[in-house]
Write a sequence for this structure.
């Protein structure tokens, strides 16, 4: 319940008793590199860190980490409350134990887990192949939806396939495949 939630602005205090960290920062490689390095320096050595990135490989994100073996991509599919699927992808330095532990963790909390063997070759590539096989009414598009237009983003999440999602300063960027009629309704947000 909400009564069990606490918010801690001090990262070191927030991580003091952490047993697992799911990083979900905006899709900025520089931000994620610095954040993961900071997490690495603050967390106990046995804590696994999972990133929900949809666009970067863990090898690239963990380059400043002293111990990259405990860092893994744990990418939930959107919307996560409807699609109980998480893709787990290790980096070049991610240990097999970290991948196994992460798979067991997500399974324990009710998610189905797909482990992708190669960075950049997993579910995203599968979704692109699915998109290529979709009926002629489907179109690929990029949208930039202002945060104030949450209903438009909800409509795309409900009726489209999202390949990439980034939280930017000026709104939510989405790379999608959706019915051309939906995209026509949302044409003001097309990039």
């Amino acid at each position: 319940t909400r009564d069990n939630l606490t918010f801690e602005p001090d990262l070191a205090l927030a991580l003091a008793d952490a047993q697992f960290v799911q990083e979900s920062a905006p899709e900025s490689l520089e931000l994620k590199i610095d954040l993961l390095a900071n997490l690495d320096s603050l967390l106990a050595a046995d804590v696994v860190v999972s990133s929900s990135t949809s666009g970067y490989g863990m090898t690239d994100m963990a380059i400043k980490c002293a111990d990259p073996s405990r860092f893994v991509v744990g990418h939930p599919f959107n919307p996560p409350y409807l699609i109980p699927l998480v893709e787990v992808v290790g980096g070049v330095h991610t240990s097999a134990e970290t991948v196994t532990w992460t798979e067991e963790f997500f399974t324990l909390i009710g998610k189905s887990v797909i482990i992708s063997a190669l960075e950049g070759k997993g579910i995203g590539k599968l979704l692109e192949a699915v998109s290529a096989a979709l009926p002629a009414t489907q179109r690929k598009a990029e949208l930039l939806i202002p945060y104030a237009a949450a209903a438009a983003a909800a409509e795309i999440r409900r009726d489209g396939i999202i390949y990439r999602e980034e939280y930017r300063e000026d709104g939510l960027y989405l790379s999608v495949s959706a019915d051309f009629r939906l995209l026509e309704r949302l044409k003001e947000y097309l990039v």
Strands lie at 20-23, 48-51, 71-76, 85-90, 112-116, 138-145, 161-168, 171-179. DSSP finds seven helices and eight strands in the chain. Residues 148 and 164 are 20 Å apart (CA to CA).
